[in-house]
Design brief:
The complex is a heterodimer of chains A (343) and B (341). Chain A has 343 residues and is mostly helical. Chain A contains 14 helices and two strands, in the order αααααββααααααααα. Chain A has a two-stranded antiparallel ribbon. The longest helix of chain A has 36 residues, at 57-92. Chain A is globular and about 65 Å long. Chain A starts with 5 loop residues before the first helix and ends in a 6-residue tail after the last helix. The relative contact order of chain A is 0.16. Chain B is of the alpha/beta class. Chain B has two domains: 67-191, 3-Layer(aba) Sandwich (Rossmann fold); 217-339, Rossmann fold. In chain B, the strands form four sheets. Chain B has a five-stranded parallel β-sheet, sandwiched between helices. A four-stranded parallel β-sheet of chain B has the order 11-8-12-13. Classes of the chains: A mainly alpha (343), B alpha/beta (341).
C-alpha cells in the first residue's frame, strides 16, 4: 500500500474541491435558456456578496432559484451516496455493494409510494418524510435480522438486506400495478430520481445528514482500513470492531436515507464513484472518503446538467446519464489501471 | 325541451358589497373588480370610500389598466393575478386548444410538448411535458398566467411555479359537464367570457341533439381498447366512459373502479361487446394488426358483425372543446341507423 500522508490528503482534497467549484460554475451557465456564461457567474457572485446588479430579474431567477439549488442538492446527494457506497463496500467486504444494496432505497420507495397513493405528497414535506421513515424502518429491520449472537456478520447482513429489499420491491410492483394514471407518473419519476424540484428546503433536509455522516466516517477511516485487513487483526490492534461496524452501518444508511428521500432513487453513483476513486487514488479510506465525496458531488452535478440540457425542454432521468457515462468510464479505468484487487 | 346547461361559473366564496349577477342567474365569481384593493372586513367604511375614490381614479385612467383578480381554481387553490393576462403558458393540450378556441393566439407564449392542435400550437415555445416541466424555459417566458391541469401536473409543480412568482390556475375536469365549466372558467380568467359562452353553447346544443336522437334506443354494449399489449380499457371516471353514456351505449367496463383497467380476453368474451372502439394515437399503422387480432374471436358479437371502429384518441380522452366531435363519433358508431343520413 502506498503511504498516505495527511499532506497528500489535503493536496488532493483541495484539488478536487477546485474541480467541484468549476463543475458548479459550468453547471449554472448551462440550461435550456441561454444566459451568457460570464453574466451567469457574475449573477452568482454578486448574490453571494449580497449585491444586486447583473442580469435581468428573469435571469437571476433562473440562475439563483433554479440552477443553483439544483447543483447544490445534486452535489450533496452525490457526495452522500458515494461515501455511503464506499462504506458499505468496506463493511460488507463486497465490491458489488452500493448504498441501496441493503434495501434502504426500497424501504424509502415504499414509504414514498404510500405517501403518493394516500395523497400525502401534496403536503410540503409529506413525501420526503414518508420515504425517510420507510428507509429508517428498513434500516432497523435489516439490522435486526442481519445480526447473529449480537454481532454483525457481513454475509448475514448482506443476505438479510438483499432479501428484505426484494420483498419491498415486490410491494413496490404491487403498488404500481394498482395505482392510477396520475399517481403512476409521480411514482415512476420518483423511482427514477428527479432533481427538478430542488429547493432550499430539500437542501436543508439533507445537508446535516450528509455533512455529519461524511465527517463521522472520515474520523473512522483508519479503523475502516484496519477492518479490511481482517477483523481479528483489527481487534488485536485495539479496534472495537462491533461498534465500528454498527456506527458505520448506521451512518452510511442514514446518509443514504436522507439522500433518497429528497430526490428519489439515483443509481450507479454510489457503486461506481468509490471504485473509480480507489482505482485512481488507492484504497486508503483516509483519502478514499473525502475524495469520493468530492468526486461524487462533481459527477452527479455534471450528470444532472447533461440530463436537463441534452433533450431540453424535456428532461432525462439523471440515472440514465450516470449509468451511460459512468459505466464506460469505469470499464476504461478497469482496463487501463490493471488493479483488479480493489478492496 | 332543452336540458339546462351546467353551472358555468364559480360560486362566490365571500360576498362582495357590489354584488351583481350574470344572466345565468349566478352570483359574480370571487373577483376583485376594477381598482378594488384587498381590505380586511373591519374597515368597511374606509373601504367603501377608498373604492369609490380608486374607481374614480381608474375610470379616468386608461381602460387597459390591469387590476388584481383573485379566483379559486378548480382544485380549491386561491390564485391571484392581474386581469387581461398577456403572456399565458399552457401546460396541457386541452388547455392549449381551449385558449386557441378563445382566440388568444397572440397571448399564448408557451405550450407543452404534447400540444399538437391546432397546427398553430406547434410553433409556440415548448415548456416541457406533463411530468417534467422546463422551469427555466417558463421563467424566461415571463408568464403573467399559467394554466395547469390537475390530471397530469402535480401539486409540487404548481407550488414551484407559484414560488417562482407565476400565478398558476389549475383546471381539473372529470366529465363532459366539467369540460364546459373549465372552458367557462378559462374564458373568465382571460377575459374572453363571450367567446367562451359561444363555444359552450355550441357544444351544449350538439350534445342535446345527440341525446335527443338516441333517446329510447337500446344501449349497445361497448368495449373501448386504448392499448393492445396488454389490453387496457376505460372504466368509470374516464371521459370516454362519460361519452359512451351520453351517446346511448353501455361501457362493458363502466362499473370498474379503476380508470384504466386491464382486461383479459376471457373477461371480454364473457361480457360480449356489440361494438368495439379502438382509440388510437397512431391511426394508420397498427390498426390493421389489431383488427386481425380481433378477427380470431368470432364469438364476440362486435367481431362477428364487423362493428369495430377506430376513433382518434385526442377526441375522446382530451378534455377540450373537440370532445364534442368525439361524442358525435361515438353516437355515429353506436347508432349508425340514426346518424348516417
Amino acid at each position: 500500500m502506498k503511504i498516505i500522508t495527511s499532506k497528500k490528503v489535503l493536496t488532493i482534497s483541495i484539488f478536487l474541491s477546485l474541480l467541484l467549484i468549476l463543475v458548479i460554475l459550468v453547471s449554472i451557465t448551462m440550461g435550456s435558456v441561454k444566459v451568457p456564461p460570464l453574466r451567469s457567474i457574475r449573477i452568482l457572485f454578486q448574490s453571494i456578496l449580497g449585491l444586486k446588479g447583473a442580469g435581468s430579474e428573469t435571469e437571476r431567477t433562473i440562475i439563483l432559484s433554479l440552477r443553483l439549488p439544483r447543483a447544490i442538492l445534486a452535489g450533496f446527494v452525490g457526495a452522500g451516496l458515494s461515501v455511503a457506497g464506499a462504506t458499505f463496500q468496506a463493511l460488507l467486504r463486497n465490491p458489488l455493494a452500493d448504498p441501496y444494496i441493503l434495501g434502504v432505497s426500497s424501504g424509502a420507495a415504499v414509504g414514498a409510494i404510500i405517501a403518493i397513493l394516500l395523497g400525502l405528497s401534496t403536503f410540503s414535506l409529506g413525501l420526503p418524510l414518508a420515504s425517510f421513515l420507510g428507509a429508517l424502518l428498513t434500516i432497523m429491520v435489516v439490522f435486526y435480522f442481519g445480526r447473529q449472537d449480537g454481532k454483525i456478520h457481513p454475509n448475514t447482513l448482506l443476505l438479510a438486506g438483499v432479501i428484505i429489499g426484494s420483498f419491498l420491491s415486490a410491494l413496490i410492483m404491487f403498488f404500481i400495478s394498482v395505482s392510477q394514471k396520475e399517481e403512476l407518473h409521480t411514482i415512476i419519476f420518483w423511482l427514477m430520481g428527479d432533481f427538478s424540484f430542488s429547493n432550499a428546503r430539500a437542501i436543508l433536509i439533507i445537508f446535516p445528514y450528509v455533512l455529519l455522516g461524511i465527517l463521522f466516517l472520515y474520523l473512522r477511516s483508519r479503523h475502516l482500513n484496519l477492518i479490511l485487513s481482517g477483523e481479528e487483526n483489527a481487534v488485536q490492534l485495539g479496534v472495537d470492531v462491533e461498534r465500528l461496524k454498527l456506527v458505520s452501518y448506521l451512518s452510511a444508511s442514514l446518509v443514504t436515507a436522507a439522500s433518497v428521500s429528497v430526490c428519489g432513487l439515483i443509481g450507479f453513483v454510489g457503486l461506481i464513484i468509490p471504485h473509480s476513486v480507489r482505482l485512481i487514488f488507492g484504497p486508503d479510506h483516509r483519502l478514499l472518503i473525502p475524495a469520493s465525496a468530492l468526486v461524487g458531488a462533481s459527477f452527479l452535478i455534471a450528470s444532472d446538467t447533461f440530463a436537463r440540457t441534452i433533450l431540453a425542454p424535456s428532461e432525462l432521468p439523471v440515472g440514465v446519464i450516470t449509468a451511460a457515462f459512468g459505466g464506460p468510464f469505469f470499464i476504461y479505468l478497469l482496463r487501463t489501471r490493471k488493479v483488479i484487487k480493489t478492496l | 325541451m332543452k336540458k339546462p346547461l351546467p353551472p358555468l361559473f364559480h360560486t362566490p366564496t365571500f360576498t362582495l358589497w357590489s354584488n351583481g349577477t350574470y344572466s345565468t342567474g349566478q352570483a359574480l365569481p370571487r373577483r376583485r373588480g376594477r381598482g378594488e384593493k384587498v381590505f380586511s372586513s373591519r374597515d368597511e367604511g374606509r373601504k367603501r370610500f377608498l373604492s369609490i375614490l380608486l374607481l374614480f381614479i381608474f375610470f379616468s385612467a386608461s381602460l387597459s389598466y390591469a387590476f388584481t383578480l383573485k379566483y379559486m381554481d378548480e382544485v380549491g387553490r386561491e390564485v391571484t393575478f392581474l386581469s387581461h393576462p398577456q403572456r399565458i403558458v399552457s401546460l396541457a393540450p386541452n388547455i392549449t386548444e381551449i385558449l386557441f378556441g378563445l382566440g388568444l393566439d397572440e397571448e399564448i407564449m408557451g405550450v407543452s410538448i404534447h400540444c399538437n392542435f391546432p397546427e398553430k400550437a406547434r410553433s409556440k415555445a415548448k415548456v416541457g411535458s406533463y411530468i417534467s416541466l422546463d422551469f427555466e424555459k417558463i421563467t424566461s417566458l415571463k408568464p403573467d398566467l399559467i394554466i395547469a391541469t390537475g390530471v397530469g401536473n402535480t401539486r409540487e409543480m404548481v407550488d414551484r411555479l407559484e414560488k417562482l412568482g407565476f400565478p398558476t390556475y389549475v383546471i381539473y375536469p372529470k366529465n363532459f359537464n366539467d369540460i364546459l365549466q373549465s372552458i367557462a372558467h378559462i374564458g373568465e380568467i382571460v377575459d374572453k367570457r363571450k367567446e367562451a359562452r359561444v363555444i359552450i353553447e355550441g357544444m351544449g346544443e350538439r350534445r342535446q341533439r345527440v341525446i335527443e336522437l338516441t333517446k329510447g334506443l337500446p344501449l349497445p354494449r361497448v368495449f373501448i381498447q386504448i392499448g393492445d399489449a396488454p389490453i387496457v380499457t376505460v372504466g368509470k371516471g374516464s371521459f370516454a366512459d362519460d361519452l359512451i353514456r351520453l351517446a346511448g351505449g353501455e361501457n362493458i367496463a363502466g362499473k370498474e373502479k379503476e380508470v384504466y383497467p386491464r382486461f383479459g380476453m376471457e373477461e371480454i368474451l364473457k361480457r360480449s361487446p356489440e361494438v368495439i372502439v379502438i382509440s388510437s394515437m397512431n391511426p394508420k399503422s397498427d390498426y390493421q394488426k389489431i383488427l386481425q387480432e380481433w378477427s380470431r374471436w368470432k364469438a364476440i358479437p362486435a367481431v362477428k358483425n364487423g362493428r369495430i371502429h377506430l376513433i382518434d384518441s385526442d377526441l375522446i380522452d382530451r378534455p377540450s372543446p373537440r370532445i364534442i366531435d368525439g361524442l358525435e363519433e361515438f353516437a355515429r358508431v353506436l347508432h349508425p341507423e340514426k346518424f348516417n343520413k
